[in-house]
Amino acid sequence: MSKENKEISLRKMQWLLFLLSRFKIPMIGYVRPKLLLLNDTDVELKIKLRRRSRNHLNSMYFGALAIGADVAAGIHTFYFAEKMNKKVSFAFKGIKGDFLKRAESDVTFKCNQGKLIRETIEKSDREQVRINENVLVEAFDDMNEIVATFEMLVSVRVK
After folding, report:
1. Fewest C-beta atoms under 10 Å: which of 9, 20, 31, 146?
2. Could you report the per-residue pLDDT of 23-74, keeping only the tens digit for each?
């Protein structure tokens, strides 16, 4: 198997997410997101509704929802950087969130923009410039009803 297209296991990405949350971005570790699915197109992760993620109305705090959207939109960048054996610098330049209803249960975040993120990384590598793209993330409660949508402006540069 070529280095350009090596397989990355879900377990390895869960470990990398743990390390990221432990040493680089502790706020992610505070709500302890669980990576459920990660492949070339889709990401699914869950944040449980518990004391750390709950607000005074017993629903998920919007900060916890924002962390879930952050991880769902950003984990693909780490995934493809690892898969393509590239060093990638990325940051979020903007976020637009629509909170449609209160999240009164665990929340699953879904993002199916893997193809777009891969193309963005490849374009940045080719042109050696920073590329900005909008990535969509949806948040669902335990009844599979949508509770929020996020539009994340991701800025990527291959070093």
Report:
1. 9
2. 999 999 999 999 999 999 999 999 999 999 999 999 999 999 999 999 999 9
Residues in the chain: 159
129 located within any domain: yes
Residues contacting 96, CB < 8 A, separation 6+: 150, 151
Tell me if 64 sits within 8 A of 139, measured CB to CB.
no
User: Average of pLDDT values for 116-134?
Assistant: 95
Total number of domains in the chain: 1
CATH assignment of the domain containing 58: 3.10.129.10
Contact 72, 4 (CB under 8 A): no
List pLDDT tens digits, range 139-157: 999 999 999 999 999 999 9
74: containing domain: 8-158
